[in-house]
């Protein structure tokens, strides 16, 4: 037998260990985790946006696991308002405002006594924001995806589970939007959401996670008190301070298996491939 029989096995093991960084030591539980979701719905036939769509069965498994492992569910206003007081705190967030958040996520969150923050786009119906980042992204798929009606948004707030956050009026691409226009996108989204839903809106999410220092200023001037990004990770690792205007989140991907979710909770991301 060849002396090299073990080589293919080693390569496979290294590849798995790069894709799933199971070997990295877990970050302390008292660093809050902020989880980022978009849709909670079964995968369709389309290969696009698969990462954005977490299957409802998987979602319930994740929430049940968090509850049974002693994670306290908090909204962004509780998390940041309490000055990151530590403890096992997890903030569930949803971006954009898909209808399945009310149909599929709310019942699960209620069942496990969880809380969540919804970053709602004001002008969300028939709006395919994927084209604002790159024109060739336009398949019309996100435009066709049903969004929450105002009645459903009220239902989410009245349930006591959800708080609202801002995500601009139109899900604009901040880096390519003129200053005056983006100032309006940011400040008006807070004003409109507060007036429409008679609720306080204190947290902001940068669309596509893309922003500059100028945009941070605009978010502060609009009266928000914190903002989340799409930068993957867990704030406070290695003694660093969380920046309330650039909070990192843990991406929960629809392509993940359950093991990947647990690795993300431990270290803030899944791996290197
Ligand atoms: Zn978004």
Overview of this structure, please?
Helix 2 (56-68) packs parallel to helix 4. The chain has one domain (29-267): TIM Barrel. 37% of the residues lie in helices and 16% in strands. It has ten helices and ten strands. Helix 4 links the parallel strand 5 and strand 6. Strands 1, 4, 5, 6, 7, 8, 9 and 10 form an eight-stranded parallel sheet that branches. The protein is globular. The protein has helices spanning 6-19, 56-68, 76-81, 100-111, 130-133, 141-144, 150-158, 179-197, 213-221, 258-267, and strands spanning 33-37, 39-40, 53-54, 72-73, 89-96, 116-120, 162-166, 203-205, 226-232, 247-251. It has 273 residues and is of the alpha/beta class. Zinc ion (ZN) binds at residues 95-96, 167, 171, 207. Zinc ion is lined by residues 95-96, 167, 171, 207.
């Amino acid at each position: 037998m060849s002396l090299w029989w073990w080589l293919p096995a080693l390569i496979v093991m290294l590849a798995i260990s790069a894709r799933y960084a199971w070997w990295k030591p877990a970050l302390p539980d008292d660093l809050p985790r902020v989880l980022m979701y978009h849709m909670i719905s079964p995968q369709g036939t389309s290969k696009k946006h698969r990462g954005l769509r977490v299957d409802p069965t998987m979602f319930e498994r994740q929430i049940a696991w968090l509850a049974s492992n002693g994670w306290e569910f908090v909204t962004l206003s509780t998390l940041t308002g309490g000055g990151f007081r530590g403890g096992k705190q997890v903030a569930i967030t949803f971006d954009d405002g898909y209808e399945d958040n009310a149909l599929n996520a709310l019942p699960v969150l209620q069942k496990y006594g969880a809380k969540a923050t919804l970053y709602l786009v004001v002008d969300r119906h028939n709006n395919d924001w994927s084209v604002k980042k790159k024109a060739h992204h336009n398949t019309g798929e996100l435009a066709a995806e049903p969004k929450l009606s105002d009645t459903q948004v009220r239902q989410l707030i009245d349930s006591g589970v959800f708080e609202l956050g801002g995500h601009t009026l139109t899900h604009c691409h901040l880096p390519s939007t003129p200053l005056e226009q983006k100032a309006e996108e940011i400040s008006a989204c807070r004003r409109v959401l507060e007036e429409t839903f008679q609720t306080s809106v204190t947290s902001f999410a940068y669309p596509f996670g893309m922003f500059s220092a100028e945009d941070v200023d605009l978010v502060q001037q609009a009266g928000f008190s914190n903002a989340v990004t799409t930068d993957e990770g867990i704030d406070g690792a290695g003694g660093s301070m969380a920046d309330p205007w650039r909070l990192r989140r843990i991406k929960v991907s629809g392509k993940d298996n359950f093991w990947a979710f647990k690795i993300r909770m431990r270290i803030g991301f899944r791996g290197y491939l």
